[in-house]
Amino acid sequence: MKLNINSLFKIISAVREYLFSYQKFGKKFQLVNTLSDLVSFINERSAYVTQTTLYGYLKTRMGLKYALMFSEDIFIQSVNKSKWNIFVVAVSDLTLFTVSILSNRNQLNLSNDSIIKIYKSVLDDQITKGMPEELLGSSLEKFKDRINNTNINFYSREKPFELSGLALYEWSPIADNLKVLDKEIVLNSIKNKWMHVINDFDKLSKNFKN
Question: For 179-199, how does the pLDDT look when each residue is reduced to its tens digit (9 = 90+)?
Fold first, then answer.
């Protein structure tokens, strides 16, 4: 396919929006004072981390070619599959982390079933935005198993975002032989993004009330 320069610029400008086109991150500085605010925070920031790390990795690895690849249906399908599989793990990590922090501050005390409902409500919202329904079911089962084997009070003190980092590494549509060279860089990139989220949450949730 031949593209003129204007078409190429249009593709480049659309790539970032394509990953989570609905997500404008307009609530970046909204306070997290209620459970509803918490669900919105988890939803928005999980999408943010997924978008920026996956987009950044593709752009870095593929160079200018990454924009052209978004005109190929097979590549778009691969990116779609990648973003949703990374996103559901990011939501899992951030749900457990935020609940753990609030629990340790004595601001929140939830049963496992209630925490599962938070996770499910975020994923339910994504069904209307393109997430495959079958992924909802499988992710929910994995989250149930995970929380039943998690001490929520200690979760935030260990490696709370390890699984989403591994998901980014595993699901990014990059050749395996190249991924081996990138693993440390990929894991550090998502770790840095999560640090911004952690800092924001600490500031925004000081007055949280269940």
Answer: 888 899 999 999 999 999 999
Give the global pTM. 0.86
pLDDT grade for 151, boundaries at 50, 70 and 90: very high
Phi-psi map region of 190: left, alpha, beta (phi>0 left; psi -120 to 50 alpha): alpha
- Is position 128 within any domain? yes
Residue 29 lies in a domain: no
188 is a domain residue: yes
**Nearby residues of 206 by Cβ (< 8 Å), 6 or more positions away:** none
Q: Is residue 20 part of a domain?
A: no
Q: Which residues contact 150 (CB under 8 A, 6 or more apart)?
A: 96
> pLDDT-based confidence at 7, cuts 50/70/90?
very low
Question: Judging by beta carbons within 10 Å of its beta carbon (0-12, 13-18, 19+), is residue 162 exposed, middle or buried?
Answer: middle
